[in-house]
Amino acid sequence: MTDRYGVFGNPVGHSKSPMIHADFARQTGQDIDYEAIEPPVDALAEAWRQFFADGGRGANVTVPFKADAVTLCDTLSHRARRAGAVNTLIAGGNGLTYGDTTDGIGLVRDLAFHRVSLTQKRVLVVGAGGAVRGIIEPLLNEQPASLVVVNRTAAKAEQLAEDFADLGAIQGGGFDSLKGTFDLVINGTSASLTGELPPLPDSLFAPNAWAYDMMYGAEPTVFLQWAGPRGAKLLDGLGMLVEQAAESFFLWRNVRPETASVREMLRQSLN
Ligand code: ATR
């Protein structure tokens, strides 16, 4: 019997998840159907109930529902509770849903795919919104020398650093608090969506540093266009998208799909 999965988002038409999971299923011989579901922005609960009542086995959750999903899950993974976000749902027995987040693992796996080590490196994260909350714990687990979080609204970065301080060396502040250079700078703001650039100093990158934008598109983001001439090697968030999907697929099906060919296919689909 075909098992039913899906992604809740609004808008969801642009989502690459159906394409990615269809490829994973083909590769691994899993009999699944994966659909895009677009509930009204204030009505996730109703669509969710319907989906699982109709036999849905699991789902992804994307913008703008990742925080709402936390309140609808019956149980949460430790990391989802800490992140305050859910991107993966699993139907348990008795109509219960379990929520987890694979975004941070997706980022760390993508960095590993590109042989970018975090251990003992100085890492800067720009932004302190929902997307950034999801990546902090997995980043700290890699034991960087330090993790600095800067945000336009400094208080949000300070709060975030306080919330994760028990997990490792993390500091938060405003852009004016930035000092020194970094081996990896991750743009986790939504500024790329509007073609804006966070106010970063020119001398931000250490030799051989990487610039990573969690967004991606057919063209490099404004942040990556800025970082290239300043000496950084560049990565966008396409690989993170594929790796977080692979981890969701693994949680659902207990099979690990291969990701290199899916990255390639997705990159080509952008052109
Ligand atoms: P998401 O779910 O994508 O994280 P969010 O929670 O609304 O969305 O967070 C957006 C993040 O991008 C915030 O860190 C925001 O900074 P503020 O907290 O000061 O609002 C950041 N951001 C958005 N536009 C920005 C810009 N033009 N320059 C710098 N930071 C920006």
Outline the structure in words.
- There is one protein chain.
- It contains ten helices and twelve strands.
- With 271 residues, the chain is α/β, with parallel strands linked by helices.
- The chain is globular.
- The protein folds into two domains: 3-101 and 240-270, Rossmann fold (3-Layer(aba) Sandwich); 104-236, Rossmann fold, CATH 3.40.50.
- A six-stranded mixed β-sheet has the order 2-1-3-5-6-4, sandwiched between helices. The chain has a six-stranded parallel β-sheet with strand order 9-8-7-10-11-12.
- Helices cover 38% and strands 21% of the residues.
- The chain binds 2'-monophosphoadenosine-5'-diphosphate.
- 2'-monophosphoadenosine-5'-diphosphate (ATR) is lined by residues 127-132, 151-153, 156, 189-191, 196, 198.
Largest sheet: 6 strands, mixed
Query: What's the order of the H and E elements?
Result: EHEHEHEHEEHEHEHEEEHEHH
| Strand count | 12
Helical percent range?
Answer: 25-40%
Number of helices: 10
Q: CATH superfamily of the largest domain, called what?
A: NAD(P)-binding Rossmann-like Domain
Q: In terms of quaternary structure, what is this? A: single chain
Q: Estimate the global geometry from the Cα principal axes.
A: globular
Number of domains: 2
Report the average pLDDT across residues: 96
CATH fold name of the largest domain: Rossmann fold
Alpha-carbon Rg, integer? 18 Å
CATH class of the largest domain: Alpha Beta
**What structural category arises from helix and sheet content?**
alpha/beta
Bound small molecules, deduplicated: 2'-monophosphoadenosine-5'-diphosphate
Q: Largest sheet, order of strands side by side?
A: 2-1-3-5-6-4
Organism: Vreelandella arcis
Keywords: Amino-acid biosynthesis, Aromatic amino acid biosynthesis, NADP, Oxidoreductase
Domain SDH C-terminal: 237-264
GO molecular function: NADP binding; shikimate 3-dehydrogenase (NADP+) activity
